[in-house]
Amino acid sequence: MFYTCGPNEAMVVSGFGRSPPLMIAGGRVFVFPCIQQIQRITLNTLTLNVKSDKVYTRHGVPISVTGIAQVKIQGQNKEMLATACQMFMGKSEQEIAQIALETLEGHQRAIIAHLTVEEIYQDRKKFSEQVFKVASSDLVNMGIGVVSYTLKDVHDDQDYLHSLGKARTAQVQKDARIGEAQYKRDAVIREAHAMQEKVSAQYKNEIEMAKAQRDYELKKAAYDVEVNTKKAESEMAYQLQVAKTKQRIEEETMQVQVVERTQQITLQDQEIIRKEKELEAKVKKPADAEKYRLEKLAEAQRVQLIMEAEAEAESIRMKGEAEAFALEAKGRAEAEQMAKKAEAFKQYKEGAMVDMLLEKLPLMAEEISKPLSAAQKVTMPNLLERCWIS
Questions:
Q1: Is-contact 54 64, C-beta < 8 A?
Q2: Coil, helix or strand at residue 18
Q3: Where do the Band domain residues begin and end (predicted)?
């Protein structure tokens, strides 16, 4: 069976399988019926009104003190929760509050006994801190934490605090009267001192004004001299600067003229160079080109003529060789024919053969002279010149 509890409550499950017991602060847990047991303990903040009546202080004065304390069981601290469960399990919230109240009251009474009425009344913060510190150490051992403690009231039945107040009031009134008289006396003294200081200050002021006027006049005279000197120096410096400026302007003008003349000379030199280049481009170079062209043309014509002559000579030689070969072949053919005829004419006489040879000589001479009669020009090339051309 599931059980739940809020954040202001803790559950403790004990029994079978729960050793040590399981403690849950705000949550849920499953409990087996009959074999496990669940118990609850409150985690609410408890407000305690701690009263200590007629407690004797260190000087034997009985006073009553009332303080307000806020305490609670610390559920987030497992050790303190376990301690609280051991001490308060099964107790109601009022019973737990009563135990904590009695503990706080005991510590409060003990601290009152070690202090005087004046210490408690005048320094309540110190008293509250002592009670909080001492009580917290004991309540922590019970699993309870002290959230806060404040001293609410201090009174007595012997009018000690009232008498203490009267004495303090009388002392304050006395101090006030004495203070007022001292203040009036000091006021009169201060007023006299103030008047004296005023007169002295007035005299000093007049003296200082006279000194200032004297220093002013002296300084003004010195400043006037210095100003006039500076003005004269300034005027002289101005005139000198004007002269220097004029001289510099003239020098710069001369430099400009020199630069302009230099530029004119440079432009003239460039114009001369341009004209020379133009002349060279328009006259010299075309003349050189024409000269070179004519030289090359003449050389080409010479080479052409030489080559034509060589070609013509070669043609004539080859033609002559061909005609000679043809004549030689024809002669061989005629010789063979004549041989054959000679064999055929063995029966003729020698006179008949001579007669036939004479008859053929004109024809042979005519055939030999035909190639020479066909040539129009015969050139004999110079061998040295031919070698140089090649």
A1: yes
A2: strand
A3: 84-266
